[in-house]
C-alpha cells in the first residue's frame, strides 16, 4: 500500500519515491511472470505496450529501467534479455498510448483507456501488452492478439481521441484551491477518553505490529521499513498476546489526554475498548481486537493496531440469567 485517497479528501496521497519503486517492481515483476510462462516471448515482438498511468512519469521510469543493461527486480538473465526495450521501441510502442497526458489520472480506468486507444488503431494480428498496477497490492501483465473483424466494429462508439476532444478544462485557481486545502491540513491525533493498562499472556499466540520511531507511526501488520521512504527512524517490533489477562487498568487523566497512542505502546501499555472501567477487574480474561489507533488528518493514513476487551463469551456468562417464569396449572370449574 503506497497510494490512498480517504473519503471526502480533495486529493490523493502517496509516499513519493516509495511509490516509484513499488510501481516499477510490480510492473516489471508482472512482465517477468508472463515471460516465465511463455519462454519464447519477448517485448520486441509486441506492436503496442501500455501500462497503468497515474502519470506519464511512472510508465516512462519503468521503460527507462527496461533499457538498462541490468534490468532491476529480475534475476533470471534469460528472462531479463527478452524484456529489454530500445529507445525506438519506447517512441513507437509506448508513448503514443500515454493518454494520461490528455486525461489526467483516471485511476483504475487508465489502463483500459490506453488499451482502448490501442485497439482504436490496431489491425488484425497485432500483439498488445497491457500491464495494470494495484498501488502496491498486485499487478497483472496481459497479452492480447487482435483478431479478424476488429475493423468492421469500429465506428459503433466514439474513439478515445473523440472522447478526449470533448473535455472541459478547469481553471488553475480551482486546482490551486484544492492543493491549498491539502497543505493546510495538520496531523491530528485521536483525542477520546482512553483506558490503558497492563496485561499478561494466556497462551503463546500473539499479534505482531511495528512502531516507527522516525515518524511515530503504528503499523499492523508489522513492517520492516516505514512506508515513507524519507523516514530514517528505526522500526521496532512489538508482540501482543492474542488472549490475555488483565493486570492493571487506569483512565488517562485530563492532563494526559493528548498523549498519543504511539507513546502508550512505546511504554508497553495497551488500550482497552468496548468496556467500562468497572468491567475491567484484575484477572479478567481479554481478547485482542483490531482498532483504529491513530489517523493523520482527513486525507492521511489511518493507523490500526491492537486493543483489548473482555472475552465475549465469558462476558455473557457474567450476565445474570432470568429466573424461569412459573405458570400456574390450569384449573377447571
Structure description:
The structure is a single chain. The chain has 333 residues and is of the alpha+beta class. The chain folds into 2 domains: 3-174, 3-Layer(aba) Sandwich (Peroxisomal Thiolase, Chain A, domain 1), CATH 3.40.47; 195-315, no CATH class. Helix content is 29%, strand content 22%. The protein contains 11 helices and 13 strands. The strands form 4 sheets. The chain has a 5-stranded antiparallel beta sheet. Strands 3-4-5 form a 3-stranded mixed beta sheet. A 3-stranded antiparallel beta sheet has the order 8-7-9. A hairpin with a 4-residue loop joins strand 7 (206-212) and strand 8 (217-219). It is elongated. It starts with a strand and ends in a 15-residue tail after the last helix.
Task: List the topology elements.
Elements: E1 3-4, E2 13-14, H1 17-37, E3 48-51, H2 57-65, H3 77-82, H4 87-94, H5 100-103, H6 109-121, E4 127-131, E5 141-145, H7 150-153, H8 160-164, H9 172-183, E6 195-201, E7 206-212, E8 217-219, E9 235-241, E10 243-251, H10 261-266, E11 270-272, E12 285-295, E13 302-310, H11 312-318
Helix pairs in contact: 1-2
